[in-house]
Every structure is written in C-alpha cells, then in structure tokens.
C-alpha cells in the first residue's frame, strides 16, 4: 500500500510539473514574468501611519478558499455572489485545482453547486484531462458519471485518454469514448477544420473578420502558428493577415511557433518575410523564447530571408525600370498623337478656308457676268427703233 501511495504521489507530482511547464506560455501573465525591480518601478512609497489595507480580488479569495478545502467559507462566498467558474491567470478553475490536489470532497461540492465540469483552461485542459494525467481514477469516474466529455481536445491535440498512463484509467476513458460515440480523430481535427473554413471565407470575401481571444489577445494567426495548422496559416497569409500582429504580451505568430517548436510554421512565416526581430513586452525576440531544438533552424531561416528580401528588391527594381520605360514610351506616343491632333484641325481649317475663298470668287465672277448680260440687254432695248 505504501508503494502504491508513493507511486500515486509521483504521478501527481509529475502531472503538476507537466502542467507547470505547459502553463509557462506566451499567454501567461506578464506581471509574473517581470523582475521585482521592474514591478515596483514608478511606485511611490507609503507614507500613511496606518497599515495599508490589502484587498484581494473576489476571484482570488474564492480560489484560495477552495484550495484550502474550507467548504463553509466557499459557501459564504457563493452566497455573496462569487463566480464558481472564476479562473486564475492560467485559466484554471477551482474545479481544476481540486482535481489536481486530489480533493474528491471539494470536487463533489463544486460539481453539486453547478461548476462547469467541461471548462477548459488556457491550455485547453478540462478537469478530466487533469484527472487522467494524475491517474485519479475515482475522480475521473465521478466526472464521467456527471456528464464530463471524453472527446474534448486540449491545445496539444490531446483528449483525456491520450494523457492516461495507467491501464485502468485508459480502459475507463476508451470505454466511455465508445459509449459516447466520440470520433476521436474528428475531435482532434474539429478546430483546424473550422479555422480552415473561416480562412477560406475571409480569402474569398477579401475581408478578415477575426476576433482576438479576450484574455491573451491572440489572433487566428497566433493559433495556427502555435498549433501547426500549416494550411490555415498559408490561407490567412494569402488573405492579407498582418504577419507581425502582436498579442497583449507583444508576441507575434513567429514567437508562438518558435516557442512551441513548430518548425514548418516558422518556415512559412519567415518565407512570407515576417519580421524575425520583433520584441515582445519583455524585450524578447522569437529567438529568445524558441524551443532549444529550433534555434539553429531559425538562424538558417533568417539567412534565407535576407536572400529572399534581396531577390525581391532586385525584382521590384526591374519591374519599376520596365514600367518607367513603358511609361516613357507611352508618353512619347501620346505627345506625337497630341501634335498630330493639333495639326489636323489646322489643316482642315485651311482647306475649308481655301474652299470658301474659291467658292466666293466663282460667285463674284458669275455675278459680274450676270450684270454685264443685263447691261447688254438694256442697251439693246434702248437702241431698238420705236
């Protein structure tokens, strides 16, 4: 029994360490990442004699009460209007934490008080993901009996059964997959398929209607880069998405792809000529936050990008030169045409004047002839005998 307890403790510790690593992410809290000196910069020292009051946010108080296992205090806070589904900076609810702490009593209390059993944290983990990872079979069974979904996918594309290490846990979850009629492959592809549909629509309409994630400020381009949705990424770039768009922490899509080690996404962004030297709010470039195994690849991409930029500049100069040449040629032709059009009316006017002049002289001659004939007739009449 002692050995089993020891193994259970090791699994829980392993799960906590894994969660800690996964929650070290680009959507995390900047305040927690900043050094103490920076956090305190610009603050005026307290000069009041009385000790300053420290007022914790209601959500933090509620989470602390749940973590301590004080159900009486939790009841009071709920009666005062506390949100049972409130989250911390990592998106963890009280139910997530109770599960990680293996506090079945608190888990039951929260579920009975209508906590969202399928709520996902910033990494897409539900409480059932946590139970499966920790190997807490009794908590997993309780969740399943109260409607937990076994087909929800986290940010790594994992359903709860993917995280199960114990055969009993894996068997339990896979049995429920069959009972619930879940298509795991379809579940894993669901988000990507939806994003593909949106990207195609934006490309065809010429209008991007993306909505940033409220907590992190991440865009569809960040998500596609971080999760390796290569086709989505290419379509979004074709649709005209801003390559260097930054989330609330100043992370670009390249920061996300580099941090999560998504090699192909890094290549797509670099070859589209994204800025590889953008710094986030902590002054970090994509190289600084990159997965260790990806740094060399990023350096290679940066060299390749310089060549691509040079080729693009040369190509643009040739196009510009050719265009100027055509414009100059077109300008000369236009000038010749204008001169021709100016000369043509003048020639026509002169011809018309000559015609008019010729016509008038003919009329004058005819008039003179008529006058002379008339005079001759008059003379003849006058000369006739009476």
From TrEMBL:
What InterPro entries does the record point to?
Ankyrin_rpt, Ankyrin_rpt-contain_sf, PP1_Regulatory_Subunit
Ligase in keyword set: no
Q: What is its main location?
A: cytoplasm
Q: Where in the cell is it found?
A: Cytoplasm, Cytoskeleton, Stress fiber
Keyword terms of this UniProt record:
ANK repeat, Cytoplasm, Cytoskeleton, Phosphoprotein, Repeat
User: Where do the ANK repeats lie?
Assistant: 90-122, 123-155, 216-248, 249-281
Q: What Gene3D superfamilies has UniProt attached to this entry?
A: Ankyrin repeat-containing domain (1.25.40.20)
Q: Where is this region: Disordered?
A: 1-52, 334-386
Question: PANTHER family attached here?
Answer: PROTEIN PHOSPHATASE 1 REGULATORY SUBUNIT 12, PROTEIN PHOSPHATASE 1 REGULATORY SUBUNIT 12B
Please give the function described in this protein's UniProt entry.
Regulates myosin phosphatase activity. Augments Ca(2+) sensitivity of the contractile apparatus.
- Its name, as the record gives it, is Protein phosphatase 1 regulatory subunit 12B
Source organism of this protein record? Trichechus manatus latirostris (Florida manatee)
């Amino acid at each position: 029994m002692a050995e089993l307890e020891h193994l259970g403790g090791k699994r829980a510790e392993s799960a906590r360490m894994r969660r800690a690593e996964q929650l070290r992410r680009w959507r995390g809290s900047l305040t927690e990442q900043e050094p103490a000196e920076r956090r305190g910069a610009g603050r005026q020292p307290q000069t009041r004699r009385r000790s300053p009051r420290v007022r914790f946010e209601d959500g933090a108080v509620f989470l602390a009460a749940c973590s301590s296992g004080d159900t009486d205090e939790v009841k009071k806070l709920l009666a005062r209007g506390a949100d049972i589904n409130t989250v911390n900076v990592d998106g963890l609810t009280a139910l997530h934490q109770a599960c990680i702490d293996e506090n079945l009593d608190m888990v039951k209390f929260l579920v009975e008080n209508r906590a969202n059993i399928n709520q996902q944290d910033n990494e897409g983990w539900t409480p059932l993901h946590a139970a499966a990872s920790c190997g807490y079979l009794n908590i997993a069974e309780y969740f399943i009996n109260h409607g937990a979904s076994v087909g929800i996918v986290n940010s790594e594309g994992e359903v709860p059964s993917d995280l199960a290490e114990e055969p009993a846990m894996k068997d339990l979850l896979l049995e429920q997959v069959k009972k619930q009629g879940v298509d795991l492959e379809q579940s894993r592809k669901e988000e990507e398929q939806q994003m593909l549909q949106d990207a195609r629509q934006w490309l065809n309409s010429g209008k991007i209607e993306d909505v940033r994630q409220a907590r992190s400020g991440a865009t569809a381009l960040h998500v596609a880069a971080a999760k390796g949705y290569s086709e989505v990424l290419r379509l979004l770039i074709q649709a005209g998405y801003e390559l260097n768009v930054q989330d609330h922490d100043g992370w670009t899509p390249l920061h996300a792809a580099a941090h999560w080690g998504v090699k192909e996404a890094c290549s797509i962004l670099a070859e589209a000529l994204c800025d590889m030297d953008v710094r986030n709010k902590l002054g970090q470039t994509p190289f600084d936050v990159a997965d260790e195994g990806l740094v060399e690849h990023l350096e290679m991409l940066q060299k390749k990008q310089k060549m691509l930029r040079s080729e693009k500049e040369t190509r643009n100069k040739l196009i510009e030169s050719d265009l100027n040449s055509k414009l100059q040629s077109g300008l000369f032709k236009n000038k010749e045409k204008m001169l021709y059009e100016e000369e043509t009316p003048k020639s026509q006017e002169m011809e018309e004047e000559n015609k008019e002049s010729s016509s008038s002289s003919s009329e004058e001659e005819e008039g003179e002839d008529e006058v002379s004939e008339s005079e001759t007739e008059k003379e003849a009449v006058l000369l006739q005998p009476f």
